[in-house]
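Progress narrative, Year 2. Work on Mitochondrial nucleoid factor 1 from Dreissena polymorpha advanced from sequence curation to structure prediction during this period.
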Amino acid sequence: MSGRNVLSRYKRALSVVEKWPLDPLKNEYRDMGSLLRKRIDIEFRQGEIAKFEDAEKCDKMLASLENIASNKYKDLYKTEWNGATTDNFEDAQKFVSDEMMDMLRENAEIGIIRRGINRVKEQFLPASKEQKRLS
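Result:
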């Protein structure tokens, strides 16, 4: 692969990571944006002399990442957002946050179902509803 092709792929990869937001609720090892940045640094470390085993595979992966970063399929197949446990995106983000993972580790002695129920109560039930329920 020529240096020009590597450079164009590198520019495409950089444009993808510029669009990809960092998730403040996750650490660098769990955040997709952070992992993409590291992977691109590794793959293109040698600059123009970088070699790819399969240039076609590299192009397909970049195209897929570009589609995801630009919300191509989200815009193409619009749906009303709802989840199995919450009705909005912000609450769903809290479920996969580092804070939630830490809480799960801290309560490892409790069964996973009870732990999840307790966390949902703490996180999403207003204090007044919980207090009424307990009295």
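Helices lie at 3-19, 32-43, 55-69, 72-76, 89-95, 98-106, 112-124, 127-134. The mean pLDDT is 80.
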